[in-house]
Amino acid sequence: MSERDSEGGLTRRSLLKTVAAGAVASTAGCGSILSSSSSSSLTRGAETAYGNCWQCHKACGMEVTLNGAGEATELHGIDGHPRGSAGEGTKGTLCPKGLSQLEKAYSPERIKQPHIRKDGELQKVDWDEAISYTADRLEDFADEYGPESLIEFHGWGTSGVFSTLFRNLYGCPNHVPHPTPTCFGSMAVTGTLMGLGGGNIRWIDYPNTEYILVWGRDPLESFAGQWEAKQLLKARERGAKIVTIDPVYTETAKKSDVWLPVEPRTDGALALAMANVIIEEGLYDEEFVENHTHGFEAYREAVEGKTPEWAAEKTGLAEHDGLGAETIREIAIGFAEAAPAAGITSWTGLGQSADHQKGAQNVVALTALVGNIDRPGGQRWHTSPPLSDPFEVGCEEELPNNAADNPCYLTDKESGYASMTGKPVQNRVPEMVDNGDVRGMVYYYRNPVTDGAAQEWLGTDNQEGALEKMDLVVGIDAFWSETTRKADVVLPEASQLEKPMFESGGYGAYNEHPWITGSQAAIEPQWNSKPGFEIVSELGREMGYEEYFPWEDKTAFINDQLEAVDLTLEELEQEHDTYYVFDDEQHRNPYEKWKGGGFAQGAEEFWFDLDKKLEGMYGKLSERVGTEITTGPQWVEPGTIGDELTEDYPLEMLDTRTVEFSHGGDQALSLPLEQLAESYGLEHEDYRGNYLVIHPDDAGERDIEHGDMVTIASEHGEAELMAAVTVGIRPGAVSVEPYGFGRGSIQPDGDGANNMLLNSPEQIDPVSGEIDRHIAVEVSPGGDA
């Protein structure tokens, strides 16, 4: 029996244990080869340096202990840090992702120097040759195919210079953003269209809240910085009620007053039933609804008849003693009565399915119904301090936008390459390559192979994939992956400890004041790697755009940003321990900002009904799926747009994040892999990859035991990984934890499964372009150990 089963649920290592015991990490067993090059921004001869963790791009502050040789030996959090603590006077800590950055810096698995493809093979070259070769190839590509035939993918951390070079200057109009297809597209796009804002369904005013709905999210394991998990727990200690709605018994569910294990993709039914109770009981905010919203009658009509009894059947909660209609009614009343000091934190759980757009609309509508938007204890709108535009400060020339002159294939709605809202769809890129519309790709801090349609990107034994068909693939990365191994140019990126970092604060621990955080490089770039900012800047200068890249390094670029607040990065680091909070009245973050500035995208009202924005688009969607899809809130049965479970594929696969990894990006590191194995009680197994979480009932029917290798298959593909059997997931659902792994991405015989091998190009949310990660599957015993 596993440790999880012995306690009747998941026993993943909790955040509290991790941050209490994990303030220090060691480099024992890691290489410590130092580059002979120097960095002008490096803190030398000091026992302590600083950093900002960028593994999940939340910039938690790091205090770095150096030995006499300038090597990092320990990492600690920074007290009071806006992303790494709960606020002023509280302890700063680092999660396993942050602590693993010590191993990452010295990992022998890193890409150690530039490579270019010669005679079909990737070969090592020096930086001068790599930059010159890349610039020449890009120039030749533009001459032969046009920059509109290039597509660019990038994640976080290049301060805009990546898109500046390839979109504004080179003229590539095709950009696949990071959050929409990868993270929470259905929720983000829907929240933006309705007026709440794309990410604001996540941010609760924790210091003032009384009631929290954690909806399809696990902020104690997948948080936007340590501040969020800590403030959630502080709210709990203060007496705030917490309700978790999730098919998986998460760390947050274990700390909640109520866990509602809904069937996947039925969240919209629960939200409509809550609204039914709130409206019928007269508990909604009539003043806010009447004066600040649009389409309430469509909302009222949508919830008519959607009683808690109806929702209990739709969500499967009726199967659980004590979690039926009466519980739904109690939660709806409790949430409404606590409002506006009541909030919802939701994310990927309602963002990663083709069926989730309507579910997301139903959930977001609750925020306006109870009038909790940007009010104490409700959905908090954060602000950032006013900073200088580095291009206006540092560049003599006005930045052009050459991409505007080129046709954009991705957002041509008639081509099928875009979602209904015009967002580019990364699942369509292989098709674009087949059609000759895309001939090349550049990417930074991304691996599109693990984002969706993996087979089409990688190919099969009998057919080349999109990566091999393209004429030019340029990648900037720290580790080898499926994508870098097939690239024509591979440029090795520095790790977080080896480059300056800066974040201009929005959401964070200081709910009433904006903030900034930044740090210089703590150690020398290892081997022959370089910070991404320097790589892109050198390439831009080589391509003839010298006037737009005048900065010696990223520190100078950041200092131009800080000019508006009369600070430098060195002062921020040395005098303020990497962060500064603007606590004066001038920079105060007031509540109810919508009274003066409107709602998201300049809307004057919150939109329950999207009739004036997406009416024609929903009509097209209705024609395609054969069911009327309205512009207002609506219940849409699972399988209407996404997969329908069948006799051959009776289980619903979803995927989950864990505290050890972000998008699987550091799966080459032994420390987080070991921690992940220990969290499932599988550290004794000769396997270090991700896991398939499955309920004992489903496992027993298939003769699967805890620690067995299994094959998970859909109509489109299959993958192999290890099973973790636990009652901490509802029967009928299985979860790949965490997603983002890829077999063979680091070593040819590496463990772990890319579950996007099961996803096909057609499996997307047509409204947002979100990759559908809820897939009908079957699981069978057997697989390679």
TrEMBL record:
It is an enzyme of class 1 (oxidoreductase). Pfam families: Molybdopterin, Molydop_binding. InterPro entries: Asp_de-COase-like_dom_sf, MoPterin_dinucl-bd_dom, Mopterin_OxRdtase, Mopterin_OxRdtase_4Fe-4S_dom, Mopterin_OxRdtase_prok_CS, Prok_Mopterin_Oxidored, TAT_signal. Gene3D superfamilies: 2.40.40.20, 3.40.50.740, ADC-like domains, Dimethylsulfoxide Reductase, domain 2, Formate dehydrogenase/DMSO reductase. Residues 46-109 form the 4Fe-4S Mo/W bis-MGD-type domain. GO terms for molecular function: iron-sulfur cluster binding; metal ion binding; molybdopterin cofactor binding; oxidoreductase activity. This is Anaerobic dehydrogenase. The lineage of its organism: Archaea, Methanobacteriati, Methanobacteriota, Stenosarchaea group, Halobacteria.
